[in-house]
Design brief:
- The protein is mainly α.
- It has one domain.
- 62% of the residues lie in helices and 5% in strands.
- It has helices at 3-28, 33-42, 48-54, 82-101, 110-139, 166-181, 190-195, 204-233, and strands at residues 57-59, 143-145, 152-154, 159-161.
- The strands form 2 sheets. The protein has a two-stranded antiparallel ribbon with strand order 1-2.
């Protein structure tokens, strides 16, 4: 797949998903999970370039690049398409994760829930990432890694690490999924109960901003922080 077709795929998918998510929220007269996941997932795009720096990722220069150049702990070339790719990718992964976890009857038992999240959320996001990178890196050469830690798949198209940063990426899913599903006896999410005096379900704008902060905090803590630290001190 060419860079232009790859960009077109994500932009088209993002527009279609956004349209559906808005329709779903309008139909149900409330902020839908689809729209919340789309917005929160999309809000992570800027952290991609910090994670890229930590793992020596280099993008194909045929992509359309942002004017945001090299800054501390970021790579120089930053493709625009990530703004469209992130909401679609994260929506797909966490919709699957939520579908699995919604069947689990331990939302009020933190230790059991954490174990289930480690068994479900981590492998699910890891699997999504492996499939995406195999097609985009090992097959299409849309980006590659100039240095790797641990085992890697090396092809003529590019180099694809298999465990790192895959494991920290999976830890992000475990942490976020736990916060998304840990509830009190009344069924209210613990994290919303702790940080908000009012029910966020009645305040959709506040709920969006609250969860944007949660998603970004989890991503930075679980993924970007260890990648940056390991590169700086290795």
């Amino acid at each position: 797949m060419s860079t232009s077709n790859f960009e077109l795929f994500w932009i088209t998918a993002a527009l279609l998903l956004l349209s559906y998510s808005i329709y779903d929220s309008h139909r149900s007269a409330k902020l839908s999970r689809h729209l919340l996941f789309f917005i929160c997932g999309g809000s992570l795009f800027w952290q991609e370039f910090y994670a890229d720096w930590g793992v020596f990722l280099i993008w194909n220069t045929d992509f359309h690049m942002m004017p945001w150049g090299k800054t501390l702990w970021t790579i120089e070339n930053k493709p625009w398409f990530n703004i469209a790719a992130y909401p679609v990718f994260m929506w797909a992964a966490f919709t699957c994760i939520s579908a699995f976890l919604s069947r689990v009857k331990c939302a009020d038992r933190p230790l059991q829930l954490l174990i289930v999240c480690a068994m479900v959320a981590g492998p699910t996001l890891y699997g999504f990432n492996v499939v995406t990178e195999y097609l985009a890196v090992a097959k299409a050469g849309l980006w590659t890694y100039t240095d790797t830690i641990g085992p890697a798949l090396r092809t003529e198209a590019g180099t694809m690490p298999l465990l790192y940063p895959g494991i920290p990426f999976a830890m992000f899913a475990v942490l976020l999924a736990f916060l998304q599903h840990y509830r009190n006896a009344k069924g209210q999410l613990h994290i919303e109960e702790v940080f908000s005096k009012k029910n966020l379900n009645d305040r959709p704008i506040a709920k969006i901003f609250f969860w944007i902060l949660v998603w970004n905090s989890c991503y930075w803590l679980a993924l970007c922080t260890p990648l940056i630290l390991i590169r700086n001190f290795s």
